[in-house]
Amino acid sequence: MALTADRTMALGRPLAGSSYCVWVPLMGGLWVVINVALVYLGLHVTYSLPCSLLAGILNGTLFSVIAVAKASERFQAGVTGLLSGLSLTGLRSDGSALMKATESLHGFVDQALRSLGIEGTEQLHHQIQQETLYIVWTTVFVVLASLIAEWVLASRAESSE
């Protein structure tokens, strides 16, 4: 009798958590749709930078919440160092690692779209590449700022003890 009750209780638990299983993919899809909508809006307004910055802030905030809430202190310190080094590569005169990565991604996506028979103007591709670069840089700086702020708060808490 207890075995049957345990099985019945086990079947009841996933049903209670099923709303979580539905909301997570929906929120992820909404996040992607918002990013695509902001890039699309940025392509059709005179000043695309505010749309890119808004998307970068949204992405950076999301990644920061995950990094600060779920990651260990060692991981946070490693990511802070990595992002600091990544932001310093942007100051070099030969171009940043992120710019080279977006150019490589642009070439790959361009080739994939051509193989599917989808043609587009190079000016449109360059605008999307530039907006993507702005979004990624804004995301990097928002995550870096939140991790540094978390590090400062943790060091202040340790020193006050």
Layout of helices and strands:
Blueprint: H1 2-16, H2 18-44, H3 49-70, H4 73-89, H5 97-115, H6 122-160
Description:
The chain is mostly helical and 161 residues long. The protein has one domain. It has six helices and no strands. The model is unreliable at 1-9 (pLDDT under 50).
Helix vs. strand class: mainly alpha
Largest sheet: none
Q: How many H/I helical runs?
A: 6
Query: Care to count the β-strands?
Result: 0
Work out the strand percent.
under 5%
The H-and-E topology, N to C, reads as HHHHHH
The gyration radius over C-alpha positions equals 22 Å
Helix content: over 70%
The residue-averaged pLDDT reads 80
Stretches with pLDDT under 50, minimum 5 residues: 1-9
Structure summary:
The chain is mainly α and 161 residues long. The chain contains 6 helices and no strands. Helix 2 (18-44) runs antiparallel to helix 3, helix 3 runs parallel beside helix 6 (122-160) and helix 4 crosses helix 6 (122-160).
Structural key phrases:
161 residues, mainly alpha, disordered N terminus
